[in-house]
């Protein structure tokens, strides 16, 4: 076994020990196939008010511009599928936001993995990325053989579906690279048919500016009245396209205590959400990604659902 193989095996074994669902590795190089897609997405204003998507175009496509002399992109998946979901007669929250904000949970593990690589292998430099820098997570995960990008533009894995977070370590160490997997969406259009705002404008193309997640999280202004009655009670994020995906019948509950929801969250009724105070909001969403929309944003979303 050569050094590259040894190092690769070592990293993948440690990633598993740290609780990651899977680990795939690809060569750090320019994402040629993604460049025209990203350009088209931005030109057609499918990112809406998400101005940050326009920044660092080159860095989004080329990891060597993010990490000097980088050789490998290590992609990691972390399961967040819950064992229990909200009361059915409630305003809904995307499952990824039930527990502690994933940025904190994953960043700590990535740092642990990077420290392990440096301790075991030596002088290795790199950076950890969790959805907070110009990195095309899904493209790298697909390139690393962890799944394929489905018609709803989320990464899907045959064995576990799509309810997981994606993160990366970009390092200056050459490793063994994984091969791309095949697409298994076939003729299925369940996600396209189920989207109430018709955000999936064609297979594999989502107009972000029409997505319920965009309206309830990213949009800071008022939600356009033309979308009234189309949100199906989603007050933060939306899981519809994932919930209807046949591959998610293979989803298994995560084993991460930090992703468990605040005890009150799952049982809250619409009446309780309508009457939520800022103190209750702070208590339930103390370390949650929901804090991103703030109390005022969540209230705006709930009021919109009531109109």
TrEMBL record:
> Which function does this protein serve?
Catalyzes the conversion of epoxyqueuosine (oQ) to queuosine (Q), which is a hypermodified base found in the wobble positions of tRNA(Asp), tRNA(Asn), tRNA(His) and tRNA(Tyr).
Question: Which organism is this protein's natural source?
Answer: Mariniflexile fucanivorans
- The residues that hold [4Fe-4S] cluster 1 are 185, 188, 191, 245
Record's Gene3D superfamilies?
3.30.70.20
Q: What keywords would UniProt list here?
A: 4Fe-4S, Cobalamin, Cobalt, Cytoplasm, Iron, Iron-sulfur, Metal-binding, Oxidoreductase, Queuosine biosynthesis, tRNA processing
Q: Listed GO molecular functions?
A: 4 iron, 4 sulfur cluster binding; cobalamin binding; epoxyqueuosine reductase activity; metal ion binding
Q: Which cofactors?
A: cob(II)alamin; [4Fe-4S] cluster
Its name, as the record gives it, is: Epoxyqueuosine reductase
Q: Which GO terms describe its cellular component?
A: cytoplasm
Assigned EC number: 1.17.99.6
Q: Where in the cell is it found?
A: Cytoplasm
What enzyme class is recorded for this protein? oxidoreductase
Where, by residue number, does cob(II)alamin bind?
60, 131, 155, 166, 213, 238-239
Residues at the catalytic site: 131
Known pathway: tRNA modification; tRNA-queuosine biosynthesis
| HAMAP family linked to this entry | QueG (MF_00916)
Q: Which family does it belong to?
A: Belongs to the QueG family.
Q: Show where the 4Fe-4S ferredoxin-type domain sits.
A: 176-204
The domain of life for this entry's organism is Bacteria
